[in-house]
Write a structure and sequence with these properties.
The protein is an all-alpha fold. It is 84% helix and 0% strand. Helix 5 packs antiparallel against helix 6 and helix 5 runs parallel beside helix 8. Belongs to the ExbB/TolQ family.
Length: 225
């Protein structure tokens, strides 16, 4: 146990028990991974939002659908999620429209199914690793609490070797144990905030995608009349 006069954070960590150090190491690693995905997902969701806005402006500006389809097909990977939804729907529409024996309803339903499949892939990609942030936010405080409880148990157990128990004897042990809870909260709070924000952004994009699919289906339906 460290002396009561030497209670810096680094000293508390260095003098913690093996179990508490192991808990701190796990939490530090989880925190590093969560910050990595916080930045990665933030960049990818912002890019998807900007690409969606750009494509919506291009689509509703009155561009020819065939030319727009060709442009998106040539740059599909960089076009953005909404552009890929459009591309898959128009490709299926053109394929079925060029075949004989298909009713208008069958063509529209085929285009909708193609867009829905692409929509689901895009949403899954946007939501990827958000579950990890949710898990970090919910589990990290309990992992830190486990380290704290273990450290406090060791602190009180060490009092058995001391004739007179005073606050000066028990305070350093309790302080080093509480560092585990602090690290757990440091890992959990940013992950919870990021998860709530990102899931809200994905929901907003999802609504925009679904609205576009309905409006685009109506446009395709008018072209069949």
């Amino acid at each position: 146990m460290i002396h009561s006069g030497d209670m810096s954070i680094l000293s508390l960590i260095a003098e913690a028990s093996i179990v508490v150090k192991f808990v701190m190491a796990i939490l530090a690693g989880v925190s590093f991974m969560s910050w990595y995905w916080i930045f990665r997902k933030g960049l990818s969701i912002r890019a998807a939002r900007n690409e969606t806005l750009d494509f919506e402006q291009q689509f509703w500006s009155g561009s020819d659908l065939v030319n727009l389809y060709r442009t998106v097909s040539q740059t599909r990977d960089e076009a953005g999620p909404l552009a890929r939804i459009f591309e898959s729907g128009f490709r299926e529409f053109s394929k079925l429209h060029g075949q004989k024996g298909h009713e208008a309803a069958d063509i529209i339903n085929g285009a909708r199914r193609a867009m829905r499949a692409t929509y689901q892939r895009e949403i899954d990609d946007l939501e990827a690793h958000l579950a990890f942030l949710a898990s970090v936010g919910s589990v990290s405080p309990y992992v830190g609490l486990f380290g704290t409880v273990w450290g406090i148990m060791n602190a009180f157990r060490g009092l058995g070797d001391v004739g007179t128990a005073t606050l000066a004897h028990v305070a350093p042990g309790i302080a080093e144990a509480l560092v585990a809870t602090a690290i757990g909260l440091f890992a959990a709070i940013p992950a919870v905030v990021a998860y709530n924000r990102y899931i809200h952004e994905v929901d907003r994009l999802s609504i925009r995608f679904e609205s576009f699919m309905e409006e685009f289906s109506n446009i395709l339906q008018r072209q069949l009349r």
